[in-house]
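Question: does this match?
>
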Amino acid sequence: MYSPEKYWNAVATEIGSRENGNVIAGDDEPYYRYKRSVLLNLLKTIPFSNNKVLELGSGPGGNLYEVSLMNPAELWGCDVSAEMLKLAEKQLAGKHVQLKKIKRLAERDAQLR
């Protein structure tokens, strides 16, 4: 059975073992570098300054770091993986970011099936 927490903890362990310290998935491949540059350009169009921002599934904190540079009033990151949050803490050292662990994902509602 798929366990999001176990899966993403394993991914975080792999990311943490990288010698170059890169925390963004695939950042060493041209296609993923391109996708990352597109996302960063998109983030620059969003008025984060003086607003409250929450990223769900914040992973190792790469997006939170970029948003932190845009002076949000509050910045929050939530993730199901404690290991991802540990990576984010390192990535965001000195930034005013609140990180929280999601204890469980929303359960299915029988009425929504």
Notes: The mean pLDDT is 88. The beta strands are 52-56, 74-79, 98-101.
